[in-house]
């Protein structure tokens, strides 16, 4: 049972990273809108969102950085690969 839950969480994580990167490539304004939405929440909800979606919120922080597009995408891709590898279900 635990193994199944770990697999589902891993699939969810990879899917959210895929959606994040797809939005970065096709609709970058949507990521900015998500950042503004999260920043506009009442602070207890902001904390909750940050805790539940920490890797993607870090990705949004990187997305908001004043770096070149290639540098932001490379950093986000490294973050996505690293976080996904760390959460890969093992025995």
Summarize the structure.
By secondary structure, this protein is mainly α.
H/E element string? HHHHH
Number of helices: 5
- Kindly report the average pLDDT value: 94
% residues in beta strands: under 5%
Q: How is the main sheet built?
A: none
Overall 3D geometry? globular
Helix-strand category: mainly alpha
Calculate Rg over CA atoms: 14 Å
Supply the number of structural domains.
Answer: 1
* Oligomeric state, counting identical vs distinct chains: single chain
Give the termini distance in whole angstroms: 12 Å
| Helical residue percent band | over 70%
β-strand number: 0
- Low-confidence parts, pLDDT < 50 over ≥5 residues? none
Q: Could you describe the 3D structure shown?
A:
The protein is mostly helical and 91 residues long. The chain has one domain (2-86). The protein contains five helices and no strands. The radius of gyration is 14 Å and the shape is globular. The two termini are 12 Å apart. 8% of the residues are buried.
């Amino acid at each position: 049972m635990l193994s199944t839950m770990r697999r589902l969480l891993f699939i969810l994580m990879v899917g959210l990273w895929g959606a994040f990167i797809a939005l970065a490539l096709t609709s970058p304004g949507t990521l900015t809108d998500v950042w503004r939405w999260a920043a506009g929440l009442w602070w207890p909800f902001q904390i909750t969102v940050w805790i539940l979606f920490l890797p993607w919120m870090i990705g949004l922080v990187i997305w908001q950085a004043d770096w070149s597009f290639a540098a932001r995408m490379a950093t986000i891709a490294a973050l996505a690969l690293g976080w996904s590898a760390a959460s890969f279900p093992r025995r």
